[in-house]
Dihydroorotate dehydrogenase B (NAD(+)), electron transfer subunit
Amino acid sequence: MSRQINGDILANERINESDYRLVLSLPEIIDEVKPGQFLHVKCGPGVDPLLRRPLSIHQCNRDKGEIVLLYRVFGRGTELLATREVGEELDIMGPLGNGFDLTELKEKILVVGGGIGSAPLMALIERLVKLNKEVTVLIGAQNKEQLLCQDELTDLPVDFKTATNDGSAGYEGYVTGLLEQELEANEYEQIFACGPTPMLKAMQPLVSKKNIEMQLSLEERMGCGTGACLSCVCKVKVENEEGFEYRKACTDGPVFKASEVIFDE
Ligand SMILES: Cc1cc2nc3c(=O)[nH]c(=O)nc-3n(C[C@H](O)[C@H](O)[C@H](O)COP(=O)(O)OP(=O)(O)OC[C@H]3O[C@@H](n4cnc5c(N)ncnc54)[C@H](O)[C@@H]3O)c2cc1C
């Protein structure tokens, strides 16, 4: 069940040119949180901007009752969020969304993140490691400075590879190029991914060719976050006359089976 509550800001620190790490004390909801869910955050102290902004749960420390978010400053909302200080309270709704479906987990799993889309994957990876799965992680970014989760991943028993567009670390090029190499070299049974829409769209044919089950976390623009406003709808395949129907990323997603998602041309 999602709720509207205030969480104390324990940290809100810049980690590179564009990204921040925000730690919130939220013991009231900690036991409900699943990997892949998000919080709907009221970024400013007043009514500007009016709408909340969806941010994924990056990490969850159940013992301390703390939730970590990673966010990139894009516009008005995230700019204001970056000015919020330790000791202030942040108004959030959550946890929202369905999260990753972990009911039929396979043994050999590939996790792929692009840009700030790597944010929700950390909680998932930590859960997969706890369940003793064999995990390989591919993280892509514009450059070395923007590669996220490096320290956390180095401390975990996962195989971790990086791609940067400018070649400053790891594979030179998009993470989808690294994925193509990886799928040729190794067999995977299941893939989880989050990143910009063009990345997820490019992954779909690569993965379906190999017949691997994949779940995608979509980052649609979102309004209410509770299924009322329909601003975050996306197309999924169904057997009706049109061949598709609209689903809400906020309440039906943000995680969908890759085989169902229809990306617009
Ligand atoms: C389920 C979900 C989880 C998300 N998790 C994270 C996260 O963990 N960390 C993070 O940094 N961001 C995340 N996002 C994206 C984040 O919500 C947007 O970047 C944010 O709302 C932008 O708000 P703003 O006021 O700063 O920018 P705005 O002024 O609203 O927009 C500025 C720019 O950001 C782009 N933008 C706005 N919303 C989105 C969006 N949903 N996806 C992609 N681009 C967008 C716009 O096209 C515009 O160019 C998530 C989005 C969704 C739907």
Summary: Residues 108-219 form a domain with the Rossmann fold fold (CATH 3.40.50.80).
